[in-house]
Amino acid sequence: MPKVAKVIVDVPSRETDRPFDYLISESMRGWIDVGSRVAVPFGRRTVQGFVISLSDHSELSLSRMKPIQELLDHLPPLPPDLVDLAEWMSHEYACSTISALQVMIPAALKGKAERYIRYAEPKQDTDVAEDEPDWYSDSLLQLDEEKQIIDYVKASGPVTVAHLDQRYPGQSVIIKQLLKQGILIESQSIKDRMKIKTVKTVVAAVHGEEAEQAMASFNAQSKRQKEILAFLLEVEVPIGMQELLSTLGATAGTVKKLAEKGFAIIEDVEVFRDPYKDRRFKASKALSLTPEQQAAYDRICETVDHQAYGVFLLHGITGSGKTEVYLQTIERCMQQGRQSIVLVPEISLTPQMVERFKGRFGDKVAVLHSRLSAGERYDEWRRIREGQVMVAVGARSAVFAPFPKLGLIVMDEEHETSYKQEETPKYHARRVAVKRAMQHDAVVILGSATPSLESYHAAKSQTNESFAPILLEMRERPSGSQLPKVEIVDMREELKEGNRSMFSRGLHQAILDRMERKEQAVLFLNRRGYATFVMCRTCGYVAGCPNCDISLTYHQKSNNMRCHYCGYSEVAPSVCPECGSEHIRYFGTGTQRVEGELAKLFPGIRVIRMDVDTTSEKGSHEKLLQAFRDKKADVLLGTQMVAKGLDFPDVTLVGVIAADSSLNFPDFRAAEKTFQLLTQVAGRAGRHLLPGEVFIQSYTPDHYSIIHASHHDYLSFIREELKHRRNLSYPPYCRLILVTLSHENLQLVVRMAENFTSGLRGRAQQRGWFGGLDRFTSDAFDILGPIASPIPKIKNRYRFQCIVKYRGDLDAIDLVREITNETLEQLRDGLLQISIDVDPAMMM
Ligand code: ADP
Ligand code: ZN
Ligand code: ZN
């Protein structure tokens, strides 16, 4: 059996981002495996680590190697495929392996080192040098207080310092003395943040003849014990201690006495916390598929049945029944004994969504939700790890669900940016899903009414071997209901005609109608409206960058506008450069303001506001939606949260207060995001019998993203948008790496950012990488910047960024990492930070 374990330690630094060799003690050898979590000595500390491989050899001599201190779980928490995946992520996202491993396990297993005091066993070994003092046998030398403490620790096993302090107050001097003498020793151990939940159970330990003898052995004093044993013999199976005590009116002491005699066994049995245990889910059966659904399902199942790798892009309009296709494919996998992961954006992980999976597959479904308590989340995770469930539904990180036989990964609303993690490791769940599917010969379904340009382009061009989804389309709704009629309202006209309110006259009237008809409305306000841009309310002019085709961001303090891609800046105008109007100002509205306006303009209107403020509490999201479903309100007003996955039969009106706020976000994906959002929100209206109506208010009603969204015309939008991306060389025509440098000292960070960029430029030139982006050759490379980050200072650290664009087989990530390390070496003050974001979702 292998003697050496290669361990990735939980020490977040560049120098420690490699495996370290540890000796596996004899007794651990059978237990330790790839993926095991261990406590190891590291320097003077004890840290947690993960075994990534086992070996018989090491470059270190066996005598110099330290042994693994502790094995933290009997079953390795990570299966080998996830350990491989972590190493892949470390390369693909230029992150440390430990950060990738950590994101795969629930928070409960992120152990924390704790200090213990234990008794040092005196050496019994007579082979050891005779002159070694046998201090404890000479107990006359010990003070009474010392003896007390020693005896206590000896009996209780390792105790924390705090515990000892509490038990022997004011005796810290003595404890310290004992530590100095080496009679007590201090050690560290890794403690899980969360314990497995257990209940005490009792079961009879005697049977047949033995039981009869036992029953005969009781006397008058032990009558109660006899009763209990009789009861246990009758029920046969283990019974909860609490239940036993309350049924018989007995005390725990009596049961314990019974156990001491060897007649009963008291055991801690682990239980799973089920966050959905009190919920009833409406059971649902497989629906008979429409021809479109059937065609998609058949094509996917072809691959599923071959147990082969495959990626499908299911492009289906809102309400086309994509979820039913997911459900039936999951069932198919289940019949083959293979498990499925369903990924949904966090904000659409609503009870409605959960209900559809729980309703179909009952307790075969685990739900991984950020709102679960750490304990609940941990238990759901264990049910997955132990193969007790067949489906895991969850947000981004559920892509790491450690299923033993993964057959399918569904990614609903695949275009959502929340699939990209903004913190290290900055992975995208779509890429990880595809990689996992390759490892397992599994299938990925990417579903959306508005697929991301990346996925759609990959499906159409089929040029990327590892990511070339097969496109499946669904254009109709099973219900036969039509997509709602969408009206674009030109808010400039409204102002011209004297309407200064945030509601156009059309939307105003439509809201009044719904109140009268007792139907409901959803009003949508873009959260991205936080970013402020400068706009003329008379003509709709928006100040944009001359070089980058994106809007400038307004900075109130300096009263200027800046481009966050190229660094261009100018003073904010006081009159519109286009029409001369003075109604030019910076923009940004909040949901609270809209709520106030509604109350003022529509007396008696009942509004439910749903935004980060009103949904921060656990369960509040569900409660608000339930109240709306119960028709306790006329209007549901909210941010992104109201755009996704909601299905209410009485919603016949959708109003978008200001479509422009996402359009003018300084991001090359602004048009795409706007189109997706408008399509999503519009899809909330008229999903059932009643026809729907949609108002989109805008100051730039001619923008192609708004016009195509109003016609539900994905293809026209995508054609136009791809043209723009191609002209400006942005994804999907290249990949991006965003590098952000930060430091407390402005001059230093500017210098280092320049060093970094020129270092990268030089090395790329040496390799002959430069150019080609505009010529659409297969290999291409360019660097933009350095420029100040959109948020130039965070927590007193100045931030500068540069953007790498590349295409083809160039190992740009590796090179960026290399130059990053070199740049950090140049300064070595420990204060310079360089963050690398591969395929960034946001350019902040
Ligand atoms: P999507 O996820 O594509 O937006 P949904 O899965 O929410 O669409 O489906 C919309 C509605 O159509 C749901 O109420 C669903 O129950 C219903 N539905 C889906 N498939 C069928 C079918 N084959 N027959 C009847 N109703 C269906
Ligand atoms: Zn103007
Ligand atoms: Zn610019």
UniProtKB/TrEMBL annotation:
It comes from the Bacteria. The keyword Metal-binding applies. Its EC number is 5.6.2.4. InterPro entries: DEAD/DEAH_box_helicase_dom, Helicase_ATP-bd, Helicase_C-like, P-loop_NTPase, PriA, PriA_3primeBD, PriA_3primeBD_sf, PriA_C. Keywords: ATP-binding, DNA replication, DNA-binding, Helicase, Hydrolase, Isomerase, Metal-binding, Nucleotide-binding, Primosome, Zinc. Its cofactor is Zn(2+). Component of the replication restart primosome. This is Replication restart protein PriA. The lineage of its organism: Bacteria, Bacillati, Bacillota, Bacilli, Bacillales.
